[in-house]
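Question (not urgent): is this output format expected?
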Amino acid sequence: MPHIRVRGMAFEDLEYISEPLIKAVSQYLNLPASHFTLEYQATSYLAAGGASAAYPFFDVLWFERTQEQKEEVARIITELVSPNIAPNTDVCVLFNTMQSDDYFYKKGTTS
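Got this back:
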């Protein structure tokens, strides 16, 4: 944990920034890089009239963090993504806080 789901950008672009992204966030949070997972989600966006251009959307699932940590991780993500997307394209970073009783691991237990 953290687990980061990504959609709205090309797989190759995400793959290109995956190592520096995990390295930067893990160093900032003082966590081993091996604690992170990065998931690519192939997604099609639709708007009125049909297919629509996507924008990068990062869904960060993690344990409780401070507002300062959220802001810095969002900055790190945006800084690494922006050079790889069209100018003036938004980057969305959404944080989902996991509580210890909200997930199960090790054969269906919380410990």
